[in-house]
Amino acid sequence: MASRTALAMLALLLLVGCAKPMRDDLYVLMPDKDGKTGVLSVESGGQQAVLDKPFASARVTEPGRVAAGAVTEQEARQAFGAALDAQPARPISFLLYFLEGRDELTPDSGQLLGRIVDEIARRPAPEIVVIGHTDRVGAVPFNDALSLRRAERVRDELVKVGIAADRIRVEGRGEREPLVPTADEVAEPRNRRVEINVR
Amino acid sequence: MTRMALLLVAVMAALAPALVGAQEAGHVKVAKGAVQIERGGQKVPATLGAAVQAGDVVATGTDGSVGITFLDNSLLSAGPNSVLAIDQFAFDSTTHQGSFESSLKKGTLAVVSGKLAKQSPDAMKVRTPAAVLGVRGTEFLIRTGDPK
């Protein structure tokens, strides 16, 4: 009798042991900042869930056991608050435009510079990449040099207002990467630009 | 001989920063509480602006959290009691090709994928002890580890 009770208890323990999930893994697809939503596949032990809607979720309780579902925004916030709060600022890009054949900013772009400086100042440990471009007027070597000169000009302006030079990387891409594709020797103001990427 | 050895050490010391630079994958932009980077058996505190390399393991304490911006603009941030390994990182800033593989051993992670995942759907992979994630964009959350 006693042994039967012991057996029953053992069976119960085993059952409880099985019912308790081995893992409590949670995967959640979030809406992008711009309102769209990407796609995430979660694969475990040959089973797969494809998440493609905002707040779609997959739970994995043991390898090979994948349960698709959804969480509320509040549940996601509760489970991942600290990780979400530690998200770095989103990288941001600016375009500055130049006068034809020169390393002088257009008047409009000159005014934008102040906003860019504010954005850099707001960020902890900022990294800045300045990439110069030209339109297709002139020879390739001339445009390589001009694009680099434009980028260096922007760097100098940033350094002048107090941004550390060692945080800024400068590149010139010449006429190779036009924003607006044109035939050779076509003047195109939108291609005479410097891209400033701030991380 | 000794002079040779000294010279060799000097040359290696001079080369070391260049080698380190080549492996650079990202930088710490947010660090709260205890956060450490383990690199080749050494543990260093993850301070603001610290470089993160392929092969590093980033670990947060019970009060810790960390946010890292990678060279392709991917953002990874981990909550408390998390262990995140940067298994592989390669990024060509001109073609946007390369690969980024990381694994969350335990804890919580928020991910915003960057230029690598945008260029090629197979370029970014995140693993946990129980699952492999295929990333076709863009923002997602991961919790893994044994239940309490």
Structure, briefly:
The complex is a heterodimer of chains A (199) and B (148). Chain A is α+β, with helices and mostly antiparallel strands. Chain A has helices spanning 2-19, 73-85, 107-122, 140-160, and strands at 25-30, 40-44, 47-51, 56-62, 65-70, 92-97, 128-132, 168-172, 193-198.
Give the beta-strand count of chain A: 9
Give the DSSP E fraction of chain A (strand runs of 2 or more residues).
25-35%
Specify which chain pair forms the largest interface: A-B, 49 and 46 residues
- Alpha plus pi helix count of chain B: 2
| CATH architecture tag of chain B | Sandwich
Q: State the share of residues found in helices of chain B, binned by percent.
A: 10-25%
Overall outline of chain B: globular
The assigned CATH architecture of the largest domain in chain A is 2-Layer Sandwich
How many E strands of chain B? 12
Mean pLDDT of chain B: 88
Radius of gyration of chain B over alpha carbons? 17 Å
- SSE order of chain B: HEEEEEEEEEHEEE
Shape of chain A: elongated
Residue runs with pLDDT of under 50 for 5 or more positions of chain B? 13-22
The chain-level structural class of chain B is: alpha+beta
Number of domains of chain A: 2
CATH C-level category of chain B:
Mainly Beta
Averaged pLDDT of chain A? 91
Write down the CATH topology of the largest domain in chain A: 60s Ribosomal Protein L30, Chain: A
Give the helix/strand class of chain A: alpha+beta
